[in-house]
């Protein structure tokens, strides 16, 4: 059996939302809210979604692309400080192959009564011979798309 190389990478994304930190935090913690923005791209269809938001709780997001290719995201929450921080570990399977394992943190900081800064940091190990720089570019792009979808969701919720 050929030994696959592990590629380690880290990235951070920051965004300011015109929403309270309670609203930003809630969008990560509530299944119905998260289902509005934490989704795959246009040709992706939901197969299964679960969220047990508590320390030791799990999250699952399973989807299928039009091509038949599937993705499976499985997370476990390790540290939660309401309205301030979420730390979790997740693995990503692509078409039944373990693609990566990550530790991620979401830090939420109130700037003033109507603006909140979110900082998302992820340290990822790609396990399937993905070239690290290519993998992290793709992961960053996908995460940024989700962070932007979160902004759209928050705008709709707050009528902005």
From TrEMBL:
Domain called Activator of Hsp90 ATPase homologue 1/2-like C-terminal: residue spans: 19-154
Pfam family membership, one: AHSA1
Source domain of life: Bacteria
InterPro entries: ASHA1/2-like_C (IPR013538), START-like_dom_sf (IPR023393)
Similarity comment: family membership: Belongs to the AHA1 family.
Annotated protein name in UniProt: Activator of Hsp90 ATPase homologue 1/2-like C-terminal domain-containing protein
């Amino acid at each position: 059996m050929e030994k696959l190389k592990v590629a380690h990478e880290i990235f951070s994304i920051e965004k300011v939302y015109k929403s309270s930190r309670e609203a930003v935090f809630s969008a990560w913690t509530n299944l119905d809210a998260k289902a509005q923005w934490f989704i795959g791209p246009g040709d992706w269809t939901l197969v299964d979604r679960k969220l047990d938001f508590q320390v030791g709780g799990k999250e699952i997001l399973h989807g299928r692309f039009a091509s038949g290719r599937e993705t499976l995201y499985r997370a476990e929450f390790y540290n939660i400080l309401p309205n301030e921080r979420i730390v979790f570990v997740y693995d990503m399977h692509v078409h039944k192959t373990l693609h990566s394992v990550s530790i991620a943190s979401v830090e939420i900081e109130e700037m003033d009564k109507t603006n909140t800064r979110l900082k998302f940091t992820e340290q990822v190990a790609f396990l399937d011979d993905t070239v690290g720089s290519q993998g992290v570019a793709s992961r960053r792009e996908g995460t940024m798309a989700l962070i932007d979808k979160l902004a759209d969701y928050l705008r709709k919720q707050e009528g902005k």
